[in-house]
Amino acid sequence: MKEKLEKIKENAKESISKIQNLQELQDLKVKLLGKKSELSTILKGLGSLAAEERPKIGSFVNDVRNEIESNINEAEKRLKEKALSQKLEKEKIDITMPGTKIKRGSKHPINRVIEEIQDLFVSMGYDVVDGPELETDEFCFERLNLPDGHPARDMQDSFYITSEYLLRTQTSAVQARTMLGNTEKSPIRMICTGKTYRREDDATHSHQFNQVEGLVVDRKELNVSLADLKGTLEVFVKKMVGEKSELRFRPSYFPFTEPSYEVDVTCFKCGGKGCPLCKKTGWIELLGAGMVHPNVLKMNGYDPEKYAGFAFGTGIDRLAMFKYGITDMRYLYTNDVRFLSQFDRKDEE
Ligand code: DAH
Predict the structure, then answer these.
(1) 281: number of CA atoms within 13 Å, CB side?
(2) Per CATH, which fold does 109-348 belong to?
């Protein structure tokens, strides 16, 4: 009997050592130790042995069983380690492979220019104010010295919604709102950037565009003068289109300023020599500006005897076109990513 058990033990050891995977090991375990195994049969047959033999053989069977179990446990450990290292080998990540680039969006050129303008004027002590795009005739025209029937209304072809409401044609409307809203009559230094609308549609005009408006009003004895306007615009234009630019103030007409000027800048493409962009004149028209008309001050709650001010306005889209060399204004509004991605964080890096 002992020999038989010794044989079972040896055979078991050998079979266990040959096992290559966990499933096979599980099957072998059932075969070696399960109810139908040779060992179980021997255990069941112990009763038929002589009484003095029984405990000896019984304890020997148990030893064999323990030995087989510990062999199986060892094999299990070995196979698990093998499986893990195979898995790790298969799932190895090649950290030298090039990564997939995640495409990030980019700021619209118009928003870039707006932020640049706002930063500049805030650094000079201006407030950034806002106004409605759906404006009344009163604020867009009347309070800016443009009464009904005034010929200068023809300068701006408007989108009227009703006879009273229209899409604002100019951010100048915010001048009147700011003055009228300032009940304390404290000094005003403001800029307003925003969308404006006119009935136009060609390569250099869009029916929707952006303007920036500036307004400074203070007591007359503080000498708010044309010199201040000139100095301010010089800083503004040089910052936006280049330090080498020169400005030219040309007398002009706007109903809300007196005197009024159109401000030209030396062509930033040819430096003033003359090229197709400046139509060979060396100058590019950039802004409208002037001293606030006494009527406008009066109509919006400021006594023109005591207060004076200057104002200016310009198209932001034109500024963006000049700054980035964009040839057709409509590119700014078609939102073609191929166009927009060209401005990918260029001046943020
Ligand atoms: N609002 C004028 C326009 O849209 C531009 C302008 C001219 C604004 C003179 C001003 C100004 O503030 O003083 O054509």
Answers:
(1) 10
(2) BirA Bifunctional Protein; domain 2 (3.30.930)
Averaged pLDDT, 201-207:
73
The Å distance, Cα 150 to ligand 1 centre, comes to 16
Ligand 1, atom 7: closest residue by C-alpha: 288
Residues with CB under 6 A from ligand 1: 170, 172, 213, 254, 257, 288-290, 311-313
Give the CA dihedral 225, 230, 236, 239, nearest 10 degrees. -140
Distance CA 111, CA 105 (A): 13
Residue indicated by tokens 């409208």: 288
Asked whether the whole model's pTM tops 0.90, one would answer no
Residue 22 or 297, more confident: 297
Print burial letters for 76-111: b (CB count within 10 Å at least 16), e (below 16). Answer: beebeeeeeeeeeeeeeeeeeeeeeeeeeebbebbe
